[in-house]
Specification:
With 428 residues, the chain is α/β, with parallel strands linked by helices. The chain folds into two domains: 190 residues, 3-Layer(aba) Sandwich (Rossmann fold); 171 residues, Response regulator (Rossmann fold). The protein is built from 15 helices and 14 strands. The strands form four sheets. The protein has a five-stranded parallel beta sheet with strand order 2-1-3-4-5, sandwiched between helices. Strands 7-6-8-9 form a four-stranded parallel beta sheet, with helices on both faces. Strand 3, helix 4 and strand 4 form a beta-alpha-beta unit. Helix 2 runs parallel beside helix 13, helix 3 runs parallel beside helix 4 and helix 13 crosses helix 14. The termini are far apart.
Length: 428
C-alpha cells in the first residue's frame, strides 16, 4: 500500500507527541528549561576542608556530565569563598545567587557559616544543600518547616556524633584500657573547640562520663580553633593522671594538639572526634606517624567502607592525590541528590525540586559512604550503618595504616595502646 509523504510526517508528529505525553506528568517532555544546570559551591576555599567541598562537587559533576548530564543538560560549577565565617558566607551565597544565577548551592563547613546558609535558603527561596553540624538547625526547621523548606543538610548532627562516641566508641576504649592496663577506672579529660558545633557535645561528654562508674572525669577544657600552644593544658592533664582524652576538634588546632601531646609524651590516648584527621594522608603529613598513633576518631566519608565508596576513594587518589577529606563525600552526595531531584520533576523550579528532594533515594552504588542516601523529616541526611550514612571509629597505627574499629562490618583491627603507655600505667 502506498502512503503519502504527509501521512508519514503526521505519524512522526503523533509518535513524538506520545513520547512526550506517555509516562510523564502533564505531558512534560524530557528537556529542561535550558541545557545548563548551574550549581554554586560556597566554602572556605583557602582551607583544606573548603577545597574538599569543591573537589566532591567536581567529582559528582564529571560523573554526571560524562554519563550524558541530567536529562541532557550539563552541570556547570560556580564558586565563592565563605572564609568559614557567617558574614562572608552570606556574601558568597548572594554572589552565587544574584551574579551567577545558580540553581542550587552546596558547601559550608563550620556551623557558624552554616547558620547563614540556612537563613539565606529561606530568604532567597533557593534549595541549599550543605554541611551544618549543630542541631540548632534541626530545631529551627521543626519550628518553622515552611520557612526553611529549601534547607537541606547532608551531614550528621552534633547529636549523631555524641551518640556514636558515648554509645559505642567510649565503651570500646574504656574496655581496652581496663583490660590492657589492668585498671578498674579510667581517668578521662574532655577537650573541645570553642565553636557552635561542639557545645552540645562538650556537655554531653561530661554527662556521659559522670554516669559511668568505670570512668572518672578529671579535666575539661575548650580551645580556640587556631590555637598553637597547649603547654598549660597538657601540664594540668599530666598532673591529673589523664589516660584518655575525649576530643571534639575540627580546625587547625586539632593538628597542634595531637602533635604536642606526643612531643611531651603525655601517657594518654586521644579519641572522640578530630575532624582534621579524617583526611588521613594530610594528618600523617602534619603530625607524623608516631604522633598519629596517639589518635583515633569518629569519621565519615574518607575511608573505604561500602564497595562504591572504595572505588570513589581510589578515584579521588588518582585525580587529586592522597586521601579525601570528609567534605568530598558530602558535596558529592549533595550534587548527586540535587541531580536526582531534577530528574524526578524534570524541572529546575525551586519549589518542584524541593518537593522532589524529599523523595530522593541514592542507592549504595550511587552514594559516598552510604548504604542509601536520603533526607529524614528534618531535612537532614539519614544516619544509620544499616540503611543510611555510615559513622565509623578508626585508629591510626604505628606503621601509618588506618584501622576501622566500629562498625563490626568494617572492622580491620583492635585498639592498639602504645606499649610504653601500657608500661607507664602498670608501674603506677
Amino acid at each position: 500500500m502506498i502512503r503519502s509523504k504527509n501521512f508519514f510526517i503526521t505519524l512522526g508528529v503523533l509518535a513524538a507527541f506520545a513520547l512526550c505525553s506517555i509516562g510523564f506528568p502533564d505531558g512534560i517532555a524530557l528537556a529542561l528549561e535550558r541545557n545548563v544546570i548551574k550549581i554554586g559551591v560556597a566554602s572556605g576555599l583557602k582551607r583544606p576542608t573548603g577545597l574538599a567541598s569543591l573537589q566532591g562537587a567536581e567529582m559528582a559533576t564529571k560523573e554526571i556530565n560524562d554519563a550524558g548530564g541530567v536529562l541532557g543538560a550539563k552541570i556547570q560549577l560556580f564558586t565563592a569563598d565563605t572564609e568559614q565565617t557567617a558574614p562572608k558566607a552570606t556574601e558568597a551565597i548572594e554572589k552565587l545567587y544574584y551574579t551567577d544565577k545558580v540553581d542550587t548551592i552546596v558547601g559550608a563547613y563550620s556551623s557558624e557559616e552554616a547558620t547563614a546558609f540556612q537563613e539565606q535558603s529561606a530568604k532567597l527561596k533557593i534549595n541549599i544543600i550543605f554541611h551544618g553540624t549543630t542541631s540548632i538547625m534541626d530545631k529551627k526547621y521543626k519550628a518553622d518547616p515552611e520557612k526553611y523548606k529549601y534547607y537541606w543538610n547532608y551531614k550528621c548532627s552534633d547529636l549523631h556524633y555524641l551518640e556514636h562516641v558515648m554509645g559505642h566508641q567510649l565503651d570500646l576504649f574504656v574496655s581496652a584500657f581496663k583490660k590492657q592496663l589492668g585498671i578498674d577506672k579510667v581517668n578521662i579529660a574532655i577537650v573541645t573547640d570553642v565553636a557552635l558545633w561542639a557545645e552540645t557535645i562538650h556537655v554531653g561528654y561530661q554527662e556521659g562520663i559522670k554516669a559511668r562508674p568505670d570512668c572518672k572525669l578529671v579535666y575539661t577544657g575548650k580551645i580556640a580553633r587556631d590555637s598553637v600552644d597547649f603547654s598549660a593544658e597538657l601540664t594540668e592533664m599530666r598532673t591529673q593522671g589523664v589516660q584518655l582524652i575525649l576530643s571534639a576538634m575540627g580546625f587547625a588546632a586539632g593538628y597542634n594538639f595531637v602533635k604536642q601531646t606526643y612531643d611531651v609524651r603525655l601517657p594518654a590516648m586521644i579519641s572522640g572526634i578530630n575532624g582534621v584527621s579524617w583526611s588521613t594522608s594530610e594528618f600523617l603529613k602534619a603530625v607524623g606517624v608516631d604522633a598519629a598513633a596517639y589518635n583515633s576518631s569518629l569519621g565519615q566519608n574518607s575511608l573505604p567502607t561500602t564497595p562504591h565508596t572504595a572505588q570513589l576513594v581510589k578515584k579521588y587518589e588518582q585525580i587529586y592525590g592522597g586521601v579525601s577529606a570528609e567534605d568530598v563525600g558530602s558535596t558529592y552526595n549533595g550534587v548527586k541528590a540535587y541531580a536526582k531531584a531534577v530528574e524526578i520533576v524534570r524541572s529546575l523550579d525551586h519549589d518542584k525540586v524541593q518537593m522532589a528532594l524529599k523523595k530522593v533515594r541514592l542507592p549504595e552504588r550511587e552514594a559516598w559512604n552510604c548504604k542509601e542516601f536520603w533526607f529524614d523529616d528534618t531535612h537532614r541526611v539519614h544516619v544509620s550503618p544499616v540503611d543510611g550514612l555510615i559513622l565509623y571509629t578508626f585508629q591510626f597505627t604505628p606503621n601509618g595504616d588506618v584501622n576501622i574499629l566500629i562498625p563490626t562490618e568494617y572492622k580491620k583491627g583492635d585498639i592498639l595502646i602504645p606499649g610504653w603507655m601500657v608500661n607507664h600505667w602498670k608501674k603506677k
